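New to this. Please check both lines:
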Amino acid sequence: MDVRLCKSKIEFNGKDFTLLTHSISGNYPNVDIDVEGAYAARFNLQKSTLIASLERVEIIASQERTNLIRMRVQAKQVQFSASSQVNQALESLDIDQFLGVECKVSFNVGYALEALKALDTEQVQVQINQGMQMVLFTSQENEGVLQLIMAARTAD
């Protein structure tokens, strides 16, 4: 294998492949979190029901380049919504064991679906951190496994 270093790039050349990496400049989000620490909202959902709802909302979200959806959490219900120039989607699910306050957060639905599909669980705990910068999906059966989705800033 041949490796070439540049100021902001590394190139790996193998027999059947070339891999090029590039250093990203700018501020990185702070992902040093205390999972058991402060949260705005925490609740449980069936993983299969959550995935099905997100996949339906994704149909509309994918019509926009950002693939963003909005999640609105209330004491007994969570709503997922997306809109494009001509369409809108809204899914509502009843939630179990709600703790925290009502809140809203936006995130990339594609990332969320990939994270949920990777969790080996039937029940998912959804947690929104205190600053509403991230959404955590954790397994009820397999402690220590979590999926973190960074929130997106939106106008509403």
Remarks:
- The mean pLDDT is 87.
- Residues 47-61 form the longest helix (15 residues).
